[in-house]
Design a protein that fits this description.
The protein has 87 residues and is mainly alpha-helical. The protein has three helices and no strands. The protein is 85% helix and 0% strand.
Length: 87
């Protein structure tokens, strides 16, 4: 355990941010999985609602710094490429 006050504060901040990052990342993965399931099922109607949600969650995670911008771009590109093959 840290002895310096600022180090103790950083420990608390890091833990709080870690928990937030876990929930943001989990939410992003859930929406991505729903979109990929719609693509696998070739359900264009369901894909019409799940794909924009997934892209939005990926953007949100990148803007909060949970994932890197390039990682977000790669994930979005992958989803959109697979969706385009379906149409």
């Amino acid at each position: 355990m840290a002895n310096i006050k600022s180090a103790k504060k950083r420990i608390k901040q890091n833990e709080r941010n870690r928990l937030r990052n876990i929930s943001v990342r989990s939410r992003m993965k859930t929406f991505m999985k729903k979109a990929l399931e719609a693509i696998a099922a070739k359900d264009t109607e369901k894909l019409g609602t799940t794909l924009p949600q997934a892209l939005s969650e990926i953007d949100r995670a990148a803007s909060k710094g949970v994932i890197h911008k390039n990682s977000a771009a790669r994930k979005k590109s992958m989803l959109q490429r697979r969706a385009a093959l379906l149409k």
